[in-house]
Amino acid sequence: MGLQVRANEMKVWETFTLERQLECIINADHLLLFRGNPHGSVSLSDVIASELIGI
Known about the structure:
Strand order of the largest sheet: 1-2
Largest sheet: 2 strands, parallel
Strand content: 5-15%
Structural class: mainly alpha
Number of domains: 1
Helix content: 55-70%
Shape: globular
Number of helices: 3
Distance between the termini: 19 Å
Radius of gyration: 11 Å
Mean pLDDT: 94
Low-confidence stretches: none
């Protein structure tokens, strides 16, 4: 899994439904592929920001 939830993001993560959490995990993988680093990791903040700007 390429998504890394930081300690300061954990409260937000816990409020997400399981469906939303899965969506974030999938979007994290897509973001890593977009960046050309499929084996890396991204933070929850990066995933949400990429969703907002449409990457």
